[in-house]
Write a structure and sequence with these properties.
There is one protein chain. A hairpin with a 2-residue loop joins strand 2 and strand 3. The protein has a four-stranded antiparallel beta sheet, with no helix packed on it. The chain contains no helices and four strands. The protein is an all-beta fold.
């Protein structure tokens, strides 16, 4: 005769957990850099004799457009009457833009095993 030991497992509910989520909208201001371009136009009197019409010249942010005229003398001569100088000036401004974002939070509630909600 021989005795043998056996082990068994039994599941017992000792508690329950309820998890719920909640979403809320959060208003915030986001910094945003805005750019704008202004153009300055300056007329520069030149009155210079030239043999042919000069080309438009671009030097960095400055564009020079020569304006020519024909003058009748004993012979025809070409003069640069004036130049139009156009300069691009860039400005940067920082502003705040309202933005709506959402975030969720979770709440965990422990329940007793007999509580059947």
């Amino acid at each position: 005769m021989e005795e043998r030991a056996t082990v068994t497992k039994e599941k017992i509910v000792t508690g329950r957990v309820r998890v719920s989520t909640h979403t809320e909208a959060v208003e915030s201001l986001v910094p945003l850099e805005l750019g704008r371009m202004e153009v300055e136009v300056v007329r520069v009197p030149v009155d210079r004799k030239v043999d042919k019409a000069p080309e438009v010249v671009v030097e960095g942010d400055l564009t020079i457009i020569p304006i020519v005229e024909e003058r009748l003398v004993v012979l025809r001569e070409l003069y640069v009457r004036e130049e139009i100088h156009i300069r691009r000036v860039e400005h940067r401004d920082t502003t705040e833009v309202p933005v709506t974002t959402r975030r969720q939070t979770a709440s965990v509630e422990r329940l007793l095993p007999e509580d059947d909600r």
